[in-house]
Predict the 3D structure of the following.
Amino acid sequence: MIDFAMSKEQQMVRNEVAKLVKGVVVDTAHDMDEERHIPPAAIQKAWELGFSISMIPESYGGFGLKDSPVETALILEELACGDMAFALAVMLPSLFIHPIAEMGTEDQKEKYLPLYCGETYKPCTLAIQEPHVGSDPVDLETTAERQGKAYVLNGKKCFVPGAAKAGHMLVAAALDGENNLFIVSGDVPGMTVGAKEKNLGLYALDTFEVSFKDCAIPMENRLGGEDGCAYDQLIQKSRVAMAAIGTGVSRASLEFVKDYAKQRVQFGEPIVHRQSVAFMLAEMAYEVDAMRLMTWKAASRLEAGKDAARESYLAKLYTGEMAMKVTDYGVQVMGGHGYIRDYPVERYYRNGRGISILEGIATL
């Protein structure tokens, strides 16, 4: 028999995240979006709950808990239900920490994990997506070439979150036709971080284009050493993470307009009594459930140590499409008010558009 009920531990974690969202995010998400800035104190408060470092061994500064993609998916959905930009900013160090912990050599773990697993939030990031048309995370144009005792990187990345302040980043590049990840310090010669990108959504999240021109890094900075890393596994985890975030954004839109439709009175009755509105709310509700189930299915395969290439791809594909539908319905239910920036549904709509487009800006 299949049981979709959360364990007591998972429910406890979810409740802690919901408490954080209610106390730190709900009343400030609009201002963060308008001001294009997330207060460091808010990020630090979330960091102290240890979401990003829970699975890191204690010897490197983490909590030494079991790695649980399902639990991380629950956390990401709850954070994104508060605000997608906040969720991505809070979990930003995971983009660097988790691949190092899972696929790095012992020397790499000892050198880098203690730098970012302390009590204070320190930004580090991952650069995968590229600015050319049809960018594909498994068909990279950024290249790495071995020259003497170094790897030389050439290419461009875009939508790199937190790049301007990141102490280190992982850069995806093709080496002899095989995709690899390389550890790059924030001040290495040959790497240039451009101006903050002006995106359709995620105003509060700083993303940048990053260029590499004859950027030489030491040989020991290839993730996993000479054997390389399980790059496909990272892509799978990233896609499931984005599916969880898309579920959270869609759920936020549903919850807001559901309450609005019960309170908004026109022609003597709440608009929820109108069949057209009720049908949209019902469709939003079952699509959110469908997104969550597809996300959990993919995450559970990862947790079982199985390949989830198909499941992760379908979860992200479906969630990307349905996030647009659900958040669009949220705008429609509110009518003219849905187009006004004083209400959050237009932010959900703008942010939700990024689910299908963005790659490699979140991971489990």
